[in-house]
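User: Predict Homoserine kinase's structure from this.
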Amino acid sequence: MAVYTQVSDDALEAFLDGYDIGRPRSFKGIAEGVENSNYYLETDQGRFILTLFERRADPKDLPYFVALKQHLAARGFPCPAPVPASDGEPLQTLEGRPALIVTFLDGLSPKRPNAAQCRSMGEALARMHAALADFDQVRENALGPASWPLLWEGRSQTAEELQPGLAALIEDDLAETAKARPQSPHLPRGTIHADLFPDNAFFLDDKFSGAIDFYFACTDALAYDLAVCLNSWAFEDGREYNYSKGAAMIAGYESVRPLKEAERTVLPLLCRGAALRFFMTRLVDWTDTPADALVRPKNPLEYADRLAFHRQAKSVTDYGG
Ligand SMILES: Nc1ncnc2c1ncn2[C@@H]1O[C@H](COP(=O)(O)OP(=O)(O)OP(=O)(O)O)[C@@H](O)[C@H]1O
Ligand SMILES: N[C@@H](CCO)C(=O)O
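Assistant:
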């Protein structure tokens, strides 16, 4: 469930008085998502999503995310476009929370993406990077390599309980990725989504129709975004790497922006780093989520299995590139 903050009819009416988007016809909480409260809002002028940002969202980051979506929308990249209130400001306050209305996107998130969807996603990822090339705001990746040892601290026992022998492997991953500094400055950098999982992408049939959930977006190596996508799109049942899907995604990406030699060489390390990032955040949620919480934590072991694949990969060709 993801409606933490209830919005009363009166509060909604008063809130919409500050906008020029018509009167509400339908207003429903959205069950998907875990971070923020999301509502589907239909007015006589269109369909929208209303988000109330909850405690984990840092208010000082919100203007960056709004500017990023405005930039992409202005360049025709399909993403939720922030809707300004009558005072010209998209970020408002509702029920004591920062609130944002964005446009509704059509499409469905694939439960099990096929190779054609992976290709379309790869192509769209590169188009997104191109559209963001002149976005000049900077946000550090708060979940970059420097954060991984801190997330790991005190959790080796949990890893061992999940899978005996795992802690030593993770220690090795941390040492290797730190040594190689995968996000090194010689790689092309820019604004990346950093969490473009299938549940954050919409499709109409096999064609990409939009991306949502830009709340991990940051400035980092462009190829790291591809590494995040290969991890989240190209493994079957969380375990086996599907070479055809990976190859389709890389080919889609390269049809817009061919990878540089340095990116091709370092891709296995970037993939290993991306898998570590999701392993770590899932491990933290695994231990910190109370048993009676409304949200069920995602399984960290899926990413332990992906790490095993990345450890033995030698170059981009192992991923189908
Ligand atoms: N612009 C949009 N158009 C259509 N549907 C949307 C849009 N934004 C969000 N949704 C729907 O709302 C759901 C929750 O959104 P989102 O994934 O951003 O939730 P969250 O709690 O803010 O983030 P997280 O996924 O990190 O928990 C999505 O799965 C999608 O179904
Ligand atoms: N997409 C992430 C959650 C947000 O970081 C995961 O599946 O672990």
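Residues 195, 197, 278, 281-282, 298 surround L-homoserine (ligand 2) (CB under 6 Å).
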